[in-house]
UniProtKB/TrEMBL annotation, chains A, B, C, D:
Domain of life the protein comes from: Bacteria
Record lineage: Bacteria, Pseudomonadati, Pseudomonadota, Betaproteobacteria, Burkholderiales
Protein name: 4-hydroxybenzoyl-CoA thioesterase
SUPFAM superfamilies: Thioesterase/thiol ester dehydrase-isomerase
InterPro entries: HotDog_dom_sf
Length: 137, 137, 137, 137
């Protein structure tokens, strides 16, 4: 399974060159992970942070910016799990343009954390099982 | 007619107190105006900026922040035109919570500008007619 | 006394028209209030939020955007107290360009809050005395 | 030579967990590159974009987020050139905490672009010479 999300490119995302300012891509990317947790894993950031006292911070990130994106375009984000560990998960996220052309390709490593102790903890069986559905074989 | 838009509150919008950081409200508000132009007036920011060389900057803003908004909530934005001049338009934008409770109430004055000349210009008849449909009597 | 701060205009602040995107002005404005608290009132946001469990959210805001600001310019912010109440403080903040020309003029009302109870509380005598030094007669 | 910049951590940078929201690190990182161009290379982004019609977009990025950063801390950014090509330059940027402890380590590849043609171009001799001073042997 691939988790997908639509990303309309807004005025707020664009720089004086009229294209997406790259730090804004990461706000969008975080939004994709947020939607995946809420819709794909049935455990929203709000639920994690407020009710469970856990978080899923990004500890490593690699990104290729392949083609610039202009104001008014709409991108499609695709998220898959590429590795699933005891307390970490590796994701691949691609942003594609209207012609399916790749705009950005990223690898993220997220770690399950206890927010109070600031320590990594095991991903719960429930979440791990939900994540497995998005594993790319 | 009232122009409406849904605003999911994201992790990126929230501050260390767990509520929306107020400058993020204005990014959302600009997004509402952007959607209104594209969907309500049939003239996107991209069309304005790139094809026509015009813009609709905000020159005056008044906002009451009535109740804080938390991570995970979803707001409803409502936009109406409260005054329509030769080159300016006054909008009222409200953000409401899930129980229709008012979170934020804003008055914005936007001015139609020629981007190259950096001068105000008359709103075209076509745009003015489209804006009139959203006038609150 | 007037509290002042320098604001270099960065690429991240500017929109496809090459000028400051107005929600970014409010990020800067919040930074000015933050610096005023830390340097002018000797009580940083960190101290307020983490150690004391209080906050100073903005409940009302009025802004005139007088002249656009371009990438590469440097603004000067000026903050004065225009009204000081039991639990609220009204500020006037101006952003000026290199020729002292006014770019933005804002009135903000901030309220001292207990973050846990989400209720307004009295401004402490210590903070109130510190704020008085910035009162515009 | 190492290019350095101070980065005060603001309320605007922090998330509901009270630590820097990672997309904000990239806004800061872009600011460091911006300052390096203006102060270290004597060619500001404004000069590049407006006067010369060139830009220096990031095409590849790798980041390790080593330790979280809290509201109220101040980081030190260190920038060095790790590779200098005909039209591209590879940078290493580190963010350190008050005890010199590493918070973030990034590798960026930037490419000199003609903004109108949207094509890579050779880095000018003048800029290349200036960049060489920051090369890590």
């Amino acid at each position: 399974m691939i988790f997908t999300a639509e990303l309309p490119i807004r005025f707020a995302h664009c720089d004086p060159a009229g294209i997406v300012f790259y730090p804004r891509y990461f706000e969008m990317m975080n939004g994709v992970v947020e939607d995946w947790c809420a819709q794909g894993l049935a455990c929203s950031f709000h639920e994690m942070h407020i009710a469970r006292g856990i978080g899923l911070p990004t500890v490593h990130l690699e990104t290729d910016f392949i083609k610039p994106t202009e104001l008014g375009e709409s991108l499609l984000a695709e998220l898959v799990v590429t590795k699933l560990g005891k307390s970490s998960v590796e994701l691949q996220i691609c942003f594609r343009g209207p012609q399916q052309d790749m705009r950005l390709k990223a690898k993220l490593v997220l770690v399950m954390m206890d927010l109070k102790l600031r320590k990594s903890i095991a991903i719960s069986d429930e979440l791990s099982t939900a994540m497995q559905k998005y594993c790319k074989i």
